[in-house]
Design a protein that fits this description.
It holds the Pfam family DUF4142. With 173 residues, the chain is mostly helical. Helix content is 83%, strand content 0%. It has one domain (28-169): Ferritin (Up-down Bundle).
Length: 173
Amino acid sequence: MQLKRLLMLAAFPATVSCCGDDDDEYGNFVSNRDRTFVSKTAMSNRAETDAGTLAATKATDTAVQSFGRMMVAHHAEARKHLQQMAAELGAAAPDTTDAAQAALLLQLQTLTGRAFDSAYIVNQVNAHKAAIALHEEEAARGNNSRIRGWAKEMLPRLEMQLYKADLLANGYR
């Protein structure tokens, strides 16, 4: 009986430490979903700053130029915060665009005048709808509490940007 009690007491600390440290349930673990969100969002922010820089210099409509400058400022700030958070959490935040974004940027570089303004601003509507959907998904289903919170925090700004882009795009549809 004494041996049984000693074995139980010896096993108890291992049981407690095994069961009491489940990061997955408490939002500290960076899941594959979180990593995908960080990667896609980082590339999107880079595409927004690159396209916004083009709009600020190539657009003929001063409202589109202004919108482009706003995109550069907002998405450069978001990119900086996301990269810092990702580095702290050990997640990759690439400072590049994906293939589709790179192709769009190449297309925008070839356009001028109203054709540029139209292509840029209509793309902004589509890009912001996609970004909002991505952030809503992470806010609802992401595992890591910091990344999930950041996604929620960014939604109002993205929604405001979509609203402004949509207003401008109405003049080009």
